[in-house]
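Dock nicotinamide-adenine-dinucleotide; give full complex structure.
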Amino acid sequence: MPCFVVATPQRTYEAVVERGVLARAAEFVPARAGRLFVLTTEDVWRLHGARLRLGRDAEMLFFPGGEERKRLAEVETLAEEMVVRGGDRSSLLVAFGGGIVNDLGGFLAAVFMRGIPVIQAPTTLLAQVDAGVGGKTGVNLVAGKNLVGAFHQPLAALIDPSVLETLPEREYRAGLFEVLKCGIIRSPALFALLVERRDQVLARAPDILEQMIAASVRIKAEVVSADERESGLRRILNFGHTIGHALEAETGYARFLHGEAVGFGMRAAVHLAERTGCLPSGEAAEIRRAIDLYGPIPPLEGVAAEALARRLRSDKKTIQGRVHFVLPERIGQVRVVPDIDEALVRAAIAEALG
Ligand SMILES: NC(=O)c1ccc[n+]([C@@H]2O[C@H](COP(=O)([O-])OP(=O)(O)OC[C@H]3O[C@@H](n4cnc5c(N)ncnc54)[C@H](O)[C@@H]3O)[C@@H](O)[C@H]2O)c1
Ligand SMILES: [Zn+2]
């Protein structure tokens, strides 16, 4: 079964993509670990709790979920609860749920008693291919998403594709945009799979599902191993995210799921790549067709190119006032381009808005 090593200065661990891996979760719990805590949401626990076998009793921590609850206040409440239930420096946390549980649980583990180990068990497609691997953890501020956080690599990432059977269709499709992103930035084979096997992808055919998750996790593992802290290569994972984040923020995080916003951001980035001469028109059209195969995303009515361009200037990824764009040069290869003329960016966004 596919198993990818993530080797970072902080820790080296495995990301295991395997049907039924949750049933052997106990193998990933060190014998010396003290009290076990499982952070999850009621829905995930009801649907899939029986799959997770830790081999020992665990204290359950339920979290209501939702982007508006991914906040420091929740971390404090959960930490207090952990202390009351006997948590100490030897405790271990399992974050079992979507990206919100992975982000908040990872951060809770990063700061509880100055850091306890976490096992990530992601249960949405988005979290399986992205949030559950790589060690980025955090919570939101009123001022913006993920503005407080820590790099805290897990002991292991246990990725069980069988839990995706119950994922709502819209969440599944949103996750597919992140898979497509992986193909565009680094894997022509993954890109081809998504284009050629659309029906099976949408039907969640088990072998196709495993192939595409494994391909995406392999990419994430390679990229994070080369650059844990996003000072270089890891930036390529932000393809489609610069303008995608602007769209999410502009619409108050209410209209678009993260993956859908990334779908839009990739479309705009492809227009930009074409306009700057980075990407030939034929391949640009090919990428846009692939994005359309997994759409449509909710209507973009009322969103103005100017407003999105303005948002870009306050993006977290803006470093000393410079917006960096990840642009494809061909399918499977991207490069980071700083300082693109703002008029070009606005025009590309306007083109993507249609
Ligand atoms: N740390 C990172 O590198 C990273 C990367 C990408 C995204 N993220 C973060 O991930 C978050 C989004 O994650 P998400 O898209 O997984 O959303 P989510 O965690 O809100 O999950 C979506 C919904 O699906 C439910 N759910 C989860 N698993 C299910 C299953 N198997 N069956 C049925 N329902 C299920 C959840 O309870 C929730 O209601 C954002 O906060 C984003 O910032 C982090
Ligand atoms: Zn993303």
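Observed: The longest strand covers residues 144-151.
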